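[agent] plan:
  1. take the single chain provided in the ticket
  2. run structure prediction with default settings
  3. attach C-alpha cells to the ticket
  4. add a short note for the reviewer (M.T.)
[agent] executing step 1
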Amino acid sequence: MGILAWIVLGIIAGAIAKAIYPGYQGGGILATMALGIIGALVGGFVGSALLGISFTGFNLQGFLVAIAGSILVLFLYGLASRTA
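[agent] step 2 finished; step 3 output follows
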C-alpha cells in the first residue's frame, strides 16, 4: 500500500486500537489519529520487513497489521508519558 493508504487506514486503526487497549489513555481525537497513523506506518514497515509481504490495497491482513502497530505505538506512548 502507498503511504496515503496507510495514513487513511491508520486513522481507523488508531480508533480501534484505543478501544482495544486496556486502561485510560490521555489525548483526544487528534492524538488518537496521530498515534494511529504512526502506528499504521510502523506496522506496515515492520510487517513488510519481517513477513516479506508487500501489502497492496485495503485488505484484512493490512488492516490487522495497522491495528497491531497502533497498539504498539499506543503502548510506547503510554510508557513515555507516564509521570512518576
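[agent] step 4 note for reviewer: The chain has a mean pLDDT of 78.
[agent] ticket updated
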